[in-house]
Amino acid sequence: MSRLFITVEARRLALVRPIGTVDRDMVNRLDSRLQPILASGIRNVVLSFKRTSHIHFQALGELIALHERLEAGGCQFRIIGVSPYLEQILAFGGIVGVIPILSSVEEAT
């Protein structure tokens, strides 16, 4: 079962933690759930893949589109917690080099 958790940390960033498989529907839910958080003034979104087991190829384009929308709106969007397996998927899907992939929340802020 896949789940999506979003928490606001220290009133400065939204930490997104998908658990299980990330698919296109989950990215669309993420986009919708981020809207009120961004409206509150949060301008840093960190997507942690620490508990993500797989990313569907179809979700990769949605992640790039989300990144572009966030960046156009003045937000930073970063990815952390990427396993070697997920890094291969992200590289194949063209995300590596487009969305910054960092090692920790601290590095992303």
**Low-pLDDT segments, ≥5 res:** none
Individual helix count: 4
In CATH, the homologous superfamily goes by the name STAS domain
Q: What is the rounded Rg?
A: 13 Å
Biggest sheet record: 5 strands, mixed
Domain tally: 1
Quickly give the structural class. Answer: alpha/beta
CATH architecture field: 2-Layer Sandwich
Apparent shape: globular
Strand-residue fraction? Answer: 25-35%
Mean of all residue-level pLDDT scores:
94
Oligomeric status: single chain
Could you walk me through the main structural features you see in this protein, from its secondary elements to its overall organization?
The protein is built from four helices and five strands. With 109 residues, it is α/β, with parallel strands linked by helices. The chain has a single domain, classed as 2-Layer Sandwich (Transcription Regulator spoIIAA). Strands 1, 2, 3, 4 and 5 form a five-stranded mixed beta sheet that branches. Strand 2, helix 1 and strand 3 form a beta-alpha-beta unit. Helix 1 runs parallel beside helix 2. The mean pLDDT is 94.
